[in-house]
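Category: protein sequence paired with discrete backbone structure
Discipline: computational structural biology
Format: plain text, a pair of labelled lines
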Amino acid sequence: MNRKWSSLLLLLVLSVTDAYLLAHPNLIGKIGVLVYKHHYIRNFPRALLTVMIVVGVSLAVCELVYRFTQKKTAIFSYLILTGIAVFWFMYVFVTFSSFSYRITGKAFIYGAHLLPVILTGLNLRYLFKRILVKEPVNNTLTEGKNGPEAL
């Protein structure tokens, strides 16, 4: 199995795990989901669809940036996306540290933390992939120059 398929399989397993965790809060968490109208995670199919949409859109954005932008622009874009995912993780961490969310059940809390971690890992993977790939050198621009000017 090549790397691309194994990475997609890992992403699929993590997404299904996250959806399962989000869809199974304890009784207090279920009441909170109803009260705060979180219909998108009320049951497993809805939670799976929500997680798959978020991860799929993020994967599509990362792939489009990787294929259609220059190296510096792609690196900057991945840094911004990673920063957003890390900020989202910190927001979830602070939110779920409060008393009202702390009693919703460990599975639900872990599921809430897992989605930003998945997105951070995805963005960092593309960032390192883009940093490590070598750009082709345009020889027409450096033909007549010698020494350090040719670089």
